[in-house]
Amino acid sequence: MAPESGSINTSAAHKDALVAKLNERTARIGIIGLGYVGLPLMLRFAELGYHVTGFDIDERKVSRLNKGESYIERIANETIARAVKSGFEATTDFARCSEVEALIICVPTPLNKFREPDLSFVVDTTEALVPHLRPGQVVSLESTTYPGTTEEELRPRIEARGLTVGLDVFLVFSPEREDPSNPDFETRTIPKVCGGTTPACLEVGLALYGQAIDRVVPVSSTQAAEMTKLLENIHRAVNIGLANEMKVICDKMGIDVYEVIRAAATKPFGFVPYYPGPGLGGHCIPIDPFYLTWKAREYGVHTRFIELAGEINSAMPKWVIAKVADALNDRGKAMRGSRVLVLGVAYKKNVDDPRESPCIELMELLQEKGAQIAYADPHIPVFPRMREHYFDLKSVELTPGSLESFDCVIVGTNHDLFDYALIKKHSKLIVDTRGVYLEAAPNVVKA
Are 12 and 45 found together in one domain? Predict the structure, then answer.
């Protein structure tokens, strides 16, 4: 049955009024989840003069933000304080979702213990905001997930409230594309993909992000936007898996894989360099492929290529530990009882984010084999409490004396702040998983 003309006119009025507010920067923006994705996005909207409210379940984060304090290393306290002065406020009260015109969801999407998608954060967040939704709002999901999540999980919950998506409330998916520590890009300059549940939803989504992002890329549906994000990260996971397999082959043949990659990268076309490491880290690349492989099974598709890359990358920490054990054995030392220092626990260089870091798995494997472990990371002075991992450790200061006290030093994360010449000079044994030492040396083993 077609809707009555009066309802169509009312719905068009909702859309037109919301688009006008977004374009005029009078709309109030709500960011749900004030972490590594939500906080930079909040700062961008605040910078443009929007009134921004941040929502988070962590009372400590909310308290610090309202005091003008940052808990992310690359974001200065002054930047947060400036946002607070311009009207930004953080809260744990989800009832205040009714006060804003735009709700942008930036919550984690991890895997459960069976390596299956865990949408509990997305679902719980949606359940918390739905009672406070009203006509004339836009809801955008940015959390990486499998194709169909926006339609299958968010839309039914919103419409159970009695609101029609595309008429009363506008629903979009626009995946985050943050790249911490990359000096060439910031939130504003990274193109933003956006897909809407309906054409009207897409129009509102483009208005939401169009003021804040230099280039917004529309796609035909939320499913296409969800798949785009997965392809981006699976592309990296597969190519890193290839680089890691090449590393193992080169090691057996006595060839330096980093020399080979550097030489191949001189080809000006048809080759993009990817580098091996101790495994995959971060909140996206080790996780996102499993979201697609899980969903693909619903359609009878076995994603063999993607899963093979995942197996290779997942095997890297154990391969590195075997190299450590062999290197110690060659020097008359057993793994059990050896003092081992891991350089870096962040998942990538020059950041303070340890999520899914392979270096943490290295530490756990070392501990299981009886090694006495320590770590050094200038970006993470105290090991943080995490959902699945914890060590009661503080970062070791790197001095000639401290380095000489360890039987082995593992280069796990290649932070620029490390003094690699000092490390090389005073370490008995270095196992280099990142290729920071280009020239062969008696105390350096490539892994």
Answer: yes
